[in-house]
Design brief:
This protein is of the alpha/beta class. The protein has helices spanning 16-30, 65-72, 75-87, 99-102, 107-112, 161-176, 191-199, 241-248, 265-274, 288-296, 313-320, 351-363, 365-381, 385-397; strands at 3-7, 34-38, 92-95, 117-121, 134-135, 138-139, 185-188, 207-209, 229-232, 256-259, 280-284, 300-303, 325-328, 343-346. It folds into two domains: 3-126 and 179-213 and 384-397, Rossmann fold; 216-381, Glycogen Phosphorylase B (Rossmann fold, 3-Layer(aba) Sandwich).
């Protein structure tokens, strides 16, 4: 059995990659492996016996000069990882999103110890200084995976030259510290992301695809007819939320529930009020049982993204609960949804096509329920925990 160092920014769930960090750790433990978490210290962290080794992170709320330096190179993280390695033998280090709080400063210590380094890529950090291939809410590939300075005139990080300069500097520094060369292998969560990495210089043999998974063994689906269409996720332009509101606005007979929060919320509220859209319900952020019940009682869920989604957990979770998905034909979404089988694929930013499918789902609830059964079967046979475990272990074995 292996000892796996499971490395990420957070030891609490803030987003999909954090959820995967925990579920992958649990999956490895279930198969008898020892899993040691290594993340930044935080008052929000879930308790663990290993938190004595968690380093301080840069303060992103009120950053000072020291925090800016710590964002580029963390001496605390280097000391902490060294202390841990002095006390414990590690067989493999599996990284997730680690850079913002831990930084690439820790790579050297692990490499020196002869530990294989694997990273699951959840975003486009290696090829884009703002990690998303988005600039001012538009898809952008101007940096071509290495000319990060090109982000400066476009102010890609929230329209701020200072923030963008820091992101650009960090991209160059992390490259120098070995963010590509020191890793033995990268795991992409979608074929799309893998192809994008190869397109911009990551060696083809150094990256393979292992999609995310959801353990459905403890999830009871609901195949009965639902009452409303559900969007759950960030309320952000890049998620296609404004296109969704525009598509749904005339469909007064189709209840649409929006679950989540984000910077586009004021705009969304304004459009709903101006158009008298009483059928569109803004429910705010939900999680746990509340979110589960909302998914279970929906007709279907919708993900109308306008950026390069990778392997969105919202699609897999919808299928796990027995619900079909209307998704945009962009990024890794088409790898998950089979058009007209377990959902629909519509053109990204295609308002008319999206409106048509929203109406179809509402008017054909029985057929939507059948699609949901197909989605659940896909989770049981293609995206289950056992298959995922074998794929991860196949990667590990190459370097042990």
């Amino acid at each position: 059995m292996l000892t796996v160092l499971n490395i990420s920014q957070n030891h609490y769930i803030r987003g999909g990659s954090d959820r995967y960090f925990f579920t992958m750790g649990e999956l490895l433990q279930k198969h008898g492996h020892k899993v040691i978490p290594f993340t930044a210290a935080s008052s929000k962290n879930e308790p663990t016996e290993w938190d004595q080794y968690f380093p301080r992170a840069a303060n992103f709320e009120n950053p000072g000069p020291v925090d800016l330096l710590r964002f580029l190179y963390s001496r605390d993280a280097v000391k902490s990882i060294q202390r841990l390695l002095d006390k414990t033998d590690v067989d493999v280090a599996h990284f997730h999103i680690y850079y913002g709080k831990l930084t690439a400063s820790i790579l050297g210590s692990l490499k020196k110890a002869g530990i294989p380094l694997i990273q699951t890529l959840h975003e486009y950090k290696l090829t884009c200084p703002v990690y998303s291939h988005l600039s001012n809410d538009e898809i952008c590939e101007d940096c071509e995976g290495k000319h990060f300075w090109r982000a400066l005139p476009k102010k890609c990080n929230r329209g701020s030259i200072a923030r963008t300069a820091l992101s650009v500097t960090e991209s160059y520094v992390s490259r120098q510290l070995g963010a590509v060369e020191k890793f033995d292998h990268f795991i992409s969560v979608s074929h799309f992301l893998r192809k994008k990495m190869i397109q911009y210089g990551i060696p083809e043999e150094k990256i393979s695809t292992v999609h995310n998974f959801t353990d459905v063994s403890h999830i009871t689906p609901n195949f009965s007819v639902g009452d409303y269409i559900l969007y759950f996720g960030r309320v952000h332009r890049s998620k296609g939320i404004l296109t969704l509101i525009e598509a749904a606005a005339p469909l007064k007979q189709v209840p649409l529930y929006i679950v989540g929060d984000g910077e586009a919320m004021p705009e969304v509220q304004q459009i709903i009020e101006q158009n008298g859209c009483e059928h569109i319900h803004l429910l705010g952020f939900k999680q746990g049982d509340e979110l589960r019940d909302l998914i279970l009682n929906s007709i279907c869920t919708v993900l109308p993204s306008e950026w390069y989604e990778n392997c969105p957990m919202s699609v897999l979770e919808s299928f796990a609960y027995g619900k079909p998905v209307i998704g945009a034909d962009i990024g890794g979404i088409p790898e998950l949804i089979e058009n007209e089988v377990d959902g629909f694929l519509v053109p990204s930013a295609g308002t008319e096509a999206l409106r048509e499918k929203l109406l179809w789902m509402f008017e054909h609830k029985d057929k939507a329920a059948e699609m949901g059964k197909t989605g659940r079967h896909k989770m049981e046979t293609e995206f289950n925990a056992d298959i995922h475990y074998e794929k991860i272990m196949n990667v590990y074995r190459k370097f042990l």
